[in-house]
Write a structure and sequence with these properties.
Elements: H1 7-20, H2 33-41, H3 45-48, H4 53-75
Length: 82
Amino acid sequence: MYDRRTSAAQGSLKILEEKYKKWLWRLPVPVDTKLREASQMGVPISLIYPQSRGLYVYQQFLTYLLDSEVEDLSRREPGVLI
């Protein structure tokens, strides 16, 4: 999780972007106490804090992954599963 308030997090993100830019997701997952609270309660965050920042970023990432998978599948030859 990324805490934009700290210089250590900002410096670490900068280094990661310099070395691994093409492999990084564009949005760092922010520190969000609501994620921790939901985890402690054993409840999906989407049920108790549907407007949380952390949930938004995870939803964006999931959409990206699913869209990428669909795109990859469309490039495969018919009948090829792997």
